[in-house]
Amino acid sequence: MTDFPNLRVVRRIAAAGTALACAWVAAGWRTEESEVDLAERSAFAFAVTGSPMEQFHPGAVRRTRVTIANPYPFAIRVRQVDARVTGSSKSRCKPTPANLTIGKYRGGLPLIVPAGGRRTAGEFEVTMPDTVANACQRATFRLAFSASAERVAR
C-alpha cells in the first residue's frame, strides 16, 4: 500500500443550499496513477462540507456545522479547518466581510476521522453585519471549506 504521510485538502466548495462538497484533485479524474502523483506531493483530497447559509438579513447570526468525510482505508487526524465566503445567489452582492463575516472555528482539534467514516468537526459562526448592502438581504451564500490532516499511525 502507498504510504500517505500527510493529507491536506486540495479544494472543497460547499454549494449553498445543498451542503454538497465537490473535490478536484489536480486536473481530471482520480486514478491509481494520480494517487501516486499525489503521494509524491503529499496531497490528498477528502470531503469537507458545511450546512447551507440561506435567508440572511441584517444582524442575522447563523452557524454552519462542518462535516469531514474520510475516503481512505486508514484514519486521519484533522489539524486545521478553515472557511471563507466565495459568492452569493445575488450578482450585486459581493462576498466581502462588509456583507458576511465568518468567525473563528469552534470545535475540538485535532479530530480523528475513522477509515471510510465521517465526523462532525465543529462549526463556524457566520454573521451578516447591520451595515450590509441591500442587495445581500435574503441571499444564499456559498462558502468554501478547507482542512489539513495527516494519516493516523497504527
Give a short synopsis of this structure.
With 154 residues, this protein is mainly beta. Helices cover 6% and strands 44% of the residues.
Please explain how this structure is put together.
The protein is mainly beta and 154 residues long. The protein has a single domain (6-151), classed as Immunoglobulin-like. The chain has one helix at residues 32-41, and strands spanning 6-8, 12-15, 20-23, 47-50, 61-69, 76-88, 101-106, 111-113, 118-127, 141-151. A hairpin with a 4-residue loop joins β2 (12-15) and β3. The longest helix is centred in the first third of the chain and has 10 residues, at 32-41. The protein is elongated and about 55 Å long. The model is unreliable at 7-41 (pLDDT under 50).
Largest sheet, strands/sense/barrel: 4 strands, antiparallel
Poorly predicted runs are 7-41
Please state the average pLDDT score.
77
Strand content: 35-45%
Evaluate the radius of gyration: 17 Å
Q: How many beta strands in the DSSP annotation?
A: 10
Please trace the helix and strand order, writing H or E for each element: EEEHEEEEEEE
**CATH topology title:** Immunoglobulin-like
What's the architecture, going by CATH? Sandwich
CATH class: Mainly Beta
